[in-house]
Design brief:
Number of strands: 7
Structural class: alpha+beta
Order of helices and strands: HHHHHHHHHEHHEEHEEHEEH
Shape: rod-shaped
Radius of gyration: 60 Å
Strand order of the largest sheet: 2-4-5-7-6
Number of helices: 14
């Protein structure tokens, strides 16, 4: 066969999957084991058959033949003694011999069933015994006792010849039975030797088959998987340029090919990630410059802008006190507008400055007892609480690792809003709750105020977004935005409970310890939140 003729067969085997190899291997193994089992069963059956024939037929047949000969000898001895003496006691061995003869003959017929030659020998023995009994034994036994039997003397020579023929027939029978037993022993010994050889061969074939199976598993499954695992570990250790060269059955090669495709995609993604990292580094540098400019803005807002604003506010207030009522009504109105605008500008700049400092200036993390923080907050808001008649209840609040200043700002804004946005003519009822939620703490500030429509649940947390005019409710629109920034800085979330309809319920979560990433990301969030104000 040429190489071209072998190629299609090789290609056919190369497309075999692990399952097909296993199916073929199992089928071949089961076939071989089945043939070995059938051969072993046949050998065992043959051995058992020969052993049974030897033990249950040949040896008992020879023994029974010898006993039959002994029974006939007992008959001859009894008849001879009775014929010579006429004593009846000599008939007892004769009668016992006759009974034993019947038993042993029947036993031989049973043992030799199916063996024609052995049954012919038995028939010859029976005929000779019958002839002797008819001519000698029964006539002598029938003579009266007390005196020697004349029949015995008269038939002595004939009786001797007949009995010699019996001996010759039984000797021939026993010789044949001995030959059969020897042949059976020889067959049994040969079969046992064959059995031992066959079982040794079976054991050898099983060992060879096991070696073939293990070697096939090693080459077809274990080695390809080990090589694939080694390649995967090499790649996992950082050598992403290491190629995967799959071997083994078709499905394992496909698996290796998929790993190789995944490696190539991973290399492309890593290249893209590296480019993205470089771009991110550049953006980070820009962000640092932006943060520096933001800090400069905060400094300007806290010093350079506030100083002229204080002068404007001071002089407009002085103008109001000195010339109030001396000018016309429109002039007094203009002065009031200027004073109010200057004051609101002052409040707005202070609030914006506080907002920009969250996560940048105030980041002294320490163990904070929120119960004590709320107590101080209620003291700071005591005037508004007393004027509104607010009733404030609270659960036991935990101790967390947080920035104490930011916690004060958080609770002050939430409680202050609950007091501010109350229903006309109704005293505020405010409840502060806290419960454990896995690794977080979930807090809620619930009031019976005017509430927040679900459509504005996200808008209220955007800086400078107000749902009411300044004439209805005072404020800069920064409070809830600052609360959101504080909560996110501490690794939590904040929102409006849309299912609560009897007022407003603000829920938020705080971690027992804020994530470290929060400190590094604070400047980025600050730049994102404050930039629109510029």
């Amino acid at each position: 066969m040429t190489g071209d003729e072998r190629l299609p067969h090789t290609r056919g085997l190369s497309t075999w999957t692990t399952r097909r190899w296993l199916q073929v291997g199992v089928a071949v193994s089961l076939t071989v084991l089945g043939l070995l089992g059938v051969t072993g069963a046949w050998i065992l059956g043959r051995t058992a058959s020969l052993s049974s024939d030897l033990v249950d037929v040949r040896s008992p047949a020879l023994t029974t033949s010898i006993r039959l000969e002994s029974a006939v000898l007992n008959q001859e001895t009894g008849i001879r003694g009775y014929g010579l003496t006429g004593t009846p006691d000599f008939l007892a061995p004769y009668r016992e011999g006759v009974a034993d003869q019947k038993v042993h003959t029947a036993r031989l017929v049973e043992l030799l069933r199916g063996d024609a030659s052995a049954l012919r020998d038995l028939k010859t023995v029976q005929d000779e015994i019958g002839t002797w009994q008819a001519k000698i034994a029964r006539p002598v036994a029938a003579t009266p006792p007390g005196a020697p039997s004349p029949e015995a003397s008269r038939r002595a020579a004939t009786g001797k010849k007949d009995f010699d023929r019996i001996r010759a027939a039984m000797t021939a029978q026993q010789d044949r039975l001995r030959e059969e037993r020897v042949r059976a022993r020889s067959d049994l010994a040969s079969t046992m030797r064959l059995r031992n050889a066959v079982f040794a061969t079976i054991a050898g074939l099983i060992v060879v088959l096991a070696v073939i199976v293990f070697e096939a598993l090693r080459r077809g499954i274990t080695t390809p998987l080990e090589r694939l695992g080694a390649d995967a570990r090499t790649i996992a250790d950082g050598d992403f340029g290491h190629p995967i060269r799959p071997i083994g059955p078709a499905d394992l090669r496909r698996l290796g090919g998929e790993f190789e495709s995944m490696r190539r995609r991973l290399v492309r993604e890593l290249d893209f990630s590296e480019e993205a990292r470089l771009r991110l580094d550049a953006q980070s540098a820009d962000l640092k410059r932006s943060n520096a400019e933001l800090e400069q803005f905060a400094y300007v807002a806290s010093h350079d802008l506030q100083e002229p604003l204080r002068k404007v506010s001071s002089f407009t207030q002085l103008l109001q006190r000195r010339y109030g009522g001396q000018l016309d009504e429109r002039a007094d109105q203009y002065i009031d507008f200027a004073v109010d605008g200057a004051n609101r500008m002052q409040v707005l700049i202070n609030d914006l400055l506080d907002f920009s400092r969250v996560g940048r200036v105030h980041h002294a993390l320490q163990s904070v007892d929120l119960g004590a923080v709320v107590k101080r907050t209620l003291s700071a808001l005591s005037v508004g609480i007393e004027e509104s008649g607010a009733v404030i209840t609270r659960d036991e609040l935990p101790t967390l690792v947080a920035d104490p200043t930011q916690m004060s700002m958080l609770w002050q804004n939430l409680i202050g809003n609950a007091v501010k946005f109350r229903r006309p003519g109704e005293s505020p009822a405010i409840h502060l709750s806290a419960e454990r939620d896995g690794e977080l703490w979930r807090f809620a500030v619930t009031d019976n105020g005017i509430g927040i429509d679900p459509e504005y649940a996200e808008q209220v947390f955007v800086i400078f977004q107000r749902l009411h005019t300044k004439d209805t409710y005072q404020g800069s629109g920064i409070g809830l935005a600052m609360c959101k920034k504080i909560v996110e800085f501490h690794g939590g979330t904040i929102g409006v409970d849309p299912d609560y309809r009897d007022g407003t319920r603000i829920t938020f979560t705080l971690a027992g310890e804020p994530p470290e990433a929060g400190l590094g990301d604070a400047d980025a969030r600050e730049a994102r939140d404050v930039t629109p104000a510029g």
